[in-house]
Amino acid sequence: MSSVEPPQHVISTFGLRDVEPAPLGADWDGGWRLGDVVLSPVADHARAAWSAKVRETLTVDGVRLARPVRSTDGRYVVSGWRADTFVPGEPEPRHDEVVSLSLRLHSATAQLERPRFLVQPPVAPWADVDVFVAADRAAWEAVPLRSARGAGAPEPSSSDGKSSLELVKQLATLRKPVESPDQLVHGDLFGTVLFSGSDAPGISDITPYWRPAPWAAGVAVVDALSWGDADDGLVGRWDDLPEWPQMLLRALMFRLAVHALHPRSTSEAFPGLARTADLVRLIL
Q1: How far, in Å, CA of 120 to CA of 282, rounded?
Q2: For strand 81-85 and strand 77-78, is the pairing parallel, antiparallel, or unpaired?
Q3: Which pLDDT does position 185 carry in this prediction?
Q4: Is 71:15 a contact under the CB 8 Å cutoff?
Q5: CA torsion, ordered 246, 62, 32, 116, to nearest 10 deg
Q6: Is 73:33 a contact under the CB 8 Å cutoff?
Q7: How far apart (Å, rounded) are the C-alpha atoms in residues 154 and 131?
Q8: How many Å apart are CA 139 and CA 13, to the nearest integer?
C-alpha cells in the first residue's frame, strides 16, 4: 500500500508535532515515521482497530511487537490512519525464524476470540479485504471459490489468472479432512517480520484469520518458496507440525486464489506459485 503524506490534522490528533514525516516501506503498509511513532494508512477500520486493541496488551515470547499509539481523544484510528510505536528492522530472508516466530505468536493468540468481521462474507463492491476473505474461504469450502462467485467476483481474464484457478481446482481434489482447531492467526508474516541483527524479530501489525496455527506457518512457507528464494528443504524442516501437508496445501490454494482474484496480480508472481505446487504435491 502506498500513500500520500499523513494530513496535518491527523498528525496533530495523535499528538505528533514538530517532526518531519519520513516514508517507510511496505512492511509498514506505506506508513510514515515521525520520531518514535509510525502513521500508517488503514485499509479496513474494523481490522485496524481490532489489531491495535490486541497489540496493546499482547505479550509474545521473543518478539518485539509494535504497540498502538492512541490519539489525544483515545481513538486507535483517525481519518483512516493508525499510529504505532516504531520497531527498528527490515525484512530479511530468515525464513525458518519467521516460521518459529509464527508458532510463538500463535501460542499467544490462541485464547483470543473470533472477531465479528471474520464471520462476514465477501461483498460487492470488491475491496482488497474482500479478495482475501474470498481467497481464504476458497481453500476450505467444498467447492473452491463458491463464496467468491456468490458475491459477484469477476472471473480472471489473464492467462496466469486462469491457470491459477485451474490449479486451485486440481489441488482441491487432494484435500483430506483436518482436525486441527481454528484460532486467531496472523496470515501475512512473509515480508513483514522485521529483523535487526541479533535482536528479537519484530511485528508491526497482525493480519487476522480464523484458521489452524499450522496453516499460518504454511502460508509463510508457501510465500517464502514462491517469492523469497527459500531452499526446498524449508518444507521438510517443519514437517512435525500437525497435519503439515494438508496445511501447506490449503495455504497454497489460498495464495493461488488471491492471485486469481486480485486485480493487481502480476504474471511474474505465478511461476513461483506453480513451482511451489510441484513441491507440495510431492509430500501429499
Answers
A1: 35
A2: antiparallel
A3: 98
A4: yes
A5: 50
A6: no
A7: 11
A8: 41
Euclidean distance between CA atoms 163 and 275, whole angstroms: 13
* Nearest CA-CA partner of 180 in 235, 242, 231: 242
With 60 as the cut, is the pLDDT of residue 1 above it?
no
Report the predicted TM-score, pTM, of the whole model to 2 decimal places: 0.95
Give the type of residue at 156: P
What does the alpha-carbon distance between residue 62 and residue 152 come to, in Å, rounded to a whole number? 43
Q: Percent of the chain scored above 70 by pLDDT? A: 99
SS3 letters for the chain? CCCCCCCHHHHHHCCCCCCCCEECCHHHCCCEEECCEEEEECCCHHHHHHHHHHHHHCCCCCCEECCECCCCCCCCEECCEEEEECCCCECCCCHHHHHHHHHHHHHHHCCCCCCHHHCCCCCCCCCHHHHHHHHHHHCCCCCCCHHHHHCCCCCCCCHHHHHHHHHHHHHHCCCCCCCCCCEEEECCCCCCEEECCCCCCEECCCCEEEECHHHHHHHHHHHHHHHCCCCCCHHHHCCCCCCHHHHHHHHHHHHHHHHHHCCCCCHHHHHHHHHHHHHHHHHC
pLDDT digits (tens, 9 = 90+) for 96-143: 999 999 999 999 999 999 999 999 998 878 889 999 999 999 999 999
Predicted confidence (pLDDT) per residue in 39-87, tens digit? 999 989 999 999 999 999 999 999 999 999 999 999 999 999 999 999 9
**pLDDT range class, residue 3, cuts 50, 70, 90:** low
Q: Which residues have CB under 8 Å from 191's CB, separation 6+?
A: 26, 27, 91, 223, 228
Q: Which three cell numbers stand for residue 245?
A: 501437508
Nine cell digits for residue 94: 530468515
Asked if 184 and 178 count as a contact pair (C-beta separation under 8 A), the reply is no
Does residue 121 have a cis bond before it (omega within 30 degrees)? no
